[in-house]
């Protein structure tokens, strides 16, 4: 058959998938051989990160995509996007008018994979454990609005919040709120290595070599009770060293599907080739890329330096040279399709302008050229990252205002160094924990932020973030959200660059690919099945 591309149209803040090709059908069949999924995500246990799969520690899209298959949460983001729906819970909801008391009732008969019952006390233990461990990944900050967790009987859990938080149901859908068995997860320390048990749709067998997970075998959990329909019995996820190796495996039939991260060249090739037996699925995404700053570092502690960089960087040129139609320039931390987005950086700086940047530096008595190193990770955000930083370097240096070098480092070294403040300027990506503007702002700007950033704006933390969370109607929160984005554009603790689409490539007998990823890049392996090649 001819290769078919599925383009899924977006609506404001939501996805509306349309199934139009055999590779995107929902008519998967149960059973059969394992479906093999390729990824370039690397999963390493190291001295700095010995517990990569502990829900109280894990905080990147790769490890979360393992946890979401295995560790159940009270709530889950629905198949077609929208507000979270009950998963391990039978029902959940706010029980007061102020969005400060949230109650859930567990489904009857829930079991962990080893047969132990799942109770309300297990939920409380799991949440309290993540909050008390305060892992240096910063993931516990998602639970920061919780004051206390109360249980009533075996199935009822009540969350008392410190302040109103309309986004709390979303937070209960993230893996940090995953329910773990107290017998397997110690209260006062993280669980090292790759052992993982839960009550989710699959159990995990980890194939580990040299402290690195190379293959994750997901087997359907016969005792699973939840909101999800599981369309297969077994999925094998294989980690590849790079996109080329993953693509070769798909071509040879060693894998059935490849996901993040494909190279721009692979996507262009699949978009143009016919009769390959492979379907490419393109869908809107909420992935963003940005530069982060250690605002205490002498080279960039002056706001004028960061503002000058914002004035020089040409996002349109960057996207055109590196990603083409696969990405779009971004002028805020909040993507354009998310309610509450404001083009704050464009409103303040307009198009790239060296003259304006020079004026900013002169007014602050900054000696030029400003010498900087831009740090990036070589193996986490895809093979185009190096080229992206070469373009950024050249843009800054051609202005005559900067003397910039670039340095690439593997993720397992890069991330700990960034958290320790060892980099003045560094490149990062963000895949949202949930599709709400709050999750593109608070993780970078609030206390205990995921970057370990020293930047502290009291108006954002004490007034604007709490104000925005009081509004159950997220459109009503736009005023507070816009104010936050405007402050970020002025102070530039981070510099947004672009937002990207997302892709899956699969052999044409694989069904359910239209739902293999949601807008937050959550991998939904339960959607995949085998059908008849069309």
Automatic annotation (TrEMBL):
It is found in: Cell envelope. It comes from Streptomyces koelreuteriae. Residues 1-21 form the signal peptide. SUPFAM superfamilies: Periplasmic binding protein-like II. PROSITE patterns: PROKAR_LIPOPROTEIN (PS51257). Residues 84-449 form the Solute-binding protein family domain. This is Peptide-binding protein. Keywords: Signal, Transport. Pfam families: SBP_bac_5. Belongs to the bacterial solute-binding protein 5 family. InterPro entries: Peptide/Ni-bd (IPR030678), SBP_5 (IPR039424), SBP_5_dom (IPR000914).
């Amino acid at each position: 058959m001819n290769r078919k591309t599925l383009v899924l149209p977006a609506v404001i803040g939501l996805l509306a998938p349309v199934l139009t090709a055999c590779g995107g059908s929902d008519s998967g069949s149960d059973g059969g051989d394992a479906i093999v999924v390729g990824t370039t995500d690397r999963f390493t246990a190291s001295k700095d990160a010995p517990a990569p799969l502990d829900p109280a520690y894990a905080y990147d899209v790769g490890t979360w995509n393992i946890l979401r298959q295995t560790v159940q949460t009270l709530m889950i983001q629905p198949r077609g996007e929208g507000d979270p729906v009950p998963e391990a819970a039978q029902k959940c909801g706010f029980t007061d008018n102020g969005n400060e008391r949230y109650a859930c009732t567990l489904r009857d008969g829930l079991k962990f994979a080893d047969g132990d019952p799942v109770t309300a006390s297990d939920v409380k233990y799991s949440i309290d454990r993540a909050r008390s461990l305060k892992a240096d990944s910063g993931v516990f900050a998602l639970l920061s609005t919780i004051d206390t967790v109360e249980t009533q009987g075996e199935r009822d859990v009540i969350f008392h919040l410190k302040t109103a938080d309309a986004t709390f149901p979303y937070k209960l859908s993230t893996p940090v709120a995953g329910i773990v068995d107290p017998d397997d997860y110690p209260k006062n320390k993280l669980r090292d290595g790759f052992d993982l048990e839960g009550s989710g749709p699959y159990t995990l067998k980890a194939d580990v070599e040299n402290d690195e997970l190379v293959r994750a075998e997901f087997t359907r959990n016969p005792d699973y009770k939840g909101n999800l329909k599981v369309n297969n019995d077994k999925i094998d996820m294989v980690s590849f060293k790079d996109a080329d190796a993953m693509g070769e495996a798909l071509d040879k039939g060693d894998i059935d599907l490849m996901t993040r991260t494909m190279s721009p060249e692979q996507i262009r090739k699949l978009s143009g080739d016919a009769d390959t037996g492979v379907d490419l699925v393109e869908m809107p995404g909420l992935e963003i890329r940005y530069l982060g700053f250690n605002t205490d570092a002498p080279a960039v502690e002056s706001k004028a330096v960061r503002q000058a960089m914002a004035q020089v960087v040409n996002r349109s040129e960057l996207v055109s040279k590196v990603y083409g139609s696969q990405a779009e320039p971004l002028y805020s931390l909040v993507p354009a399709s998310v309610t509450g987005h404001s083009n704050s950086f464009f409103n303040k700086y307009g198009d790239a302008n060296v003259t304006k940047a020079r004026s900013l530096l002169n007014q602050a008595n900054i000696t030029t050229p400003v010498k900087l190193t831009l740090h990036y990770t070589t193996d986490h955000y895809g093979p185009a990252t190096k080229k992206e930083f070469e373009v950024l370097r050249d843009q800054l240096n051609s202005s005559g205002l900067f003397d910039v070098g670039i340095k690439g480092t593997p993720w397992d070294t890069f991330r700990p160094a960034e958290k320790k403040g060892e980099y003045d300027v560094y490149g990062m990506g963000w895949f949202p924990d949930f599709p709400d503007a709050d999750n593109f702002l608070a993780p970078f700007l609030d206390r205990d932020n995921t970057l370990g950033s020293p930047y502290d704006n009291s108006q954002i933390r004490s007034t604007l973030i709490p104000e925005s969370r009081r509004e159950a109607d997220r459109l009503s929160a736009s005023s507070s959200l816009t104010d936050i984005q405007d402050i970020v554009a002025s102070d530039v603790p981070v510099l947004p660059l672009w937002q990207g689409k997302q892709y899956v490539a699969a052999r044409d007998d694989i069904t359910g690919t239209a739902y293999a990823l949601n807008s937050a890049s959550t991998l939904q392996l339960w959607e995949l099945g085998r059908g008849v090649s069309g």
